[in-house]
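OP here, attaching both records as promised.
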Amino acid sequence: MQLEEIMKFTPSHTNFELSPYTGLDRDSWIEAAQYLLAGIFNNIKDSEAPVVMPRYETEVTYPSKDAPLWRIKAEVFEGLCRSFFISAPLIHIKPDLELNGINVREYYKKQVLYAVTKGEKNYVLNYSDMRELDKSGNPVAVYQQTVE
C-alpha cells in the first residue's frame, strides 16, 4: 500500500442530490474534520503537550534552530489556534470525542488556559512579554505574520 492510499480521506457516504459537486453533506464534513484532527492528535503525546507538528527542516520554516523564545511560542500559539478551528465544532457535536487517548474537549480547555497563564510551560506570551524579549527596538518585530 502506498502512502497516498493510507493518508486519503474517503467519506463513508455521499449525497449528490444535496451537494451536486462534492456529494458531501453535514455528516461528511464532520467526518472529514475528525479525520484531519485525528492526524493532528496522532502527533500529540499527551494532554500536557502543545500542538506542535513534527518538522523535518529548520532553515526555511519558523522557528529556526536559533529563534528567539517569542518565535517558538508563536509556533505553539499557531498550532493551538489552527487546530482549534477544526476542533471547536467537533467539541460541540461530540463533547466526549477522544483521539489518541486524549479527550479533545478537555485538551483544549487545558491548553487555552495554559496559553494565557504566565508561568505555565505552554504560555504563549503577551505583547509586553514579547517586546521585552526582543532587543531589535522595532515595535512590530514580535508579530508573527502567519498567525491571523
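Record two, same layout:
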Amino acid sequence: MSTYSSQLLQEQFKSAHDWLMNTIGEADESQLHWQADGLPSPIGAQLMHVLLVEDFFVGALSGNGPLMMGDFAGKTGASEMPPQSGPWDEWGKSVQVDLAAARDYADAVFKATDAYVGSLDDEAVAEKITLEAVGIEDRTRGNILSILILNCFTHAGEISALKGLQGEKGYPF
C-alpha cells in the first residue's frame, strides 16, 4: 500500500512544529503572559492551545487517548486546563505557562503525532470518519490532520505578532 499521503503529512507536521517552536524561541515569562488589548490570548496560551488540541485529536484518532490524560497529566506546562466547551478566552487570559514543561510536552505530542501519521497508508488518510464528541462528521482523516497543521501555522503567526507588539523579533528569520 502507498504511504505517500502520510509521508507528506509527516513532512508538513515537522515544518509546522519547527516553525511554531522556533517562533516561540526563548520567550521569557513576561513575554509569554503579556496581554495585548483586545481578544488575542497571550503567547503562552496560544502555544498551549496548539499543543492541547493536537494532543486531543491525535489521541482520539489513534485510539491511544491524549497524553494530557495519561503520562503528561498535570505536566503539560499549563497551570490549568481549558474549559471542555465554550470559548477559551478567559482561560487564555488566566493560564500560566511553564515554558520548559511545555517544551517537554510538545516534544511528546509531536513524537506521538509523527508515530500516528507514519502508521497510516493512503487509504487510511482518505477514510471518512466521525468524531461525534467534538461535532466532526464525515471528514477525511487527512482533512482533520491538515487542520491541525494549519492550526500550528496560524497560531505561530499570532505569536509572532504578539512578540512584535512587545518589541521583539517575531518569526525566526
